[in-house]
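Entry 14. Ran structure prediction on the chain below.
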Amino acid sequence: QVQLVESGGRLVQAGGSLRLSCAASGRTFSNCAMGWFRQAPGKERELVASINWSGGSTYYADSVKGRFTISRDNTKNTVYLQMNSLKPEDTAGYYCATTRPGNSGYAPNSVYQFPYWGQGTQVTVSS
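Output, structure tokens:
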């Protein structure tokens, strides 16, 4: 059974930084893409960043380019989201997700490619 557990969310001031972690278990993840989504109250879930199985390809939403960095450590089955220069509009629940196995050379950019989800961690950015 696939299990994804996010951590690292908290209250932070605007301009600050956070690093989210997602620990995966239940099967091998080294051949799966991983992604971070976020959802604010009243808004649709948004793909923030994704990374392919090797880490060689990444995708970022325009709203976070240059501020967020996704990375992974396949030896630890963990994916990270480094968030810098945080803004109040980054406030949301952040969710980790993974794809089915497949060694694609490209980072996925659609929510429909991610069938497995974690429970989320809350990030609140105060102004």
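The first strand starts at residue 3 and ends at 7. Will compare against last week's run tomorrow.
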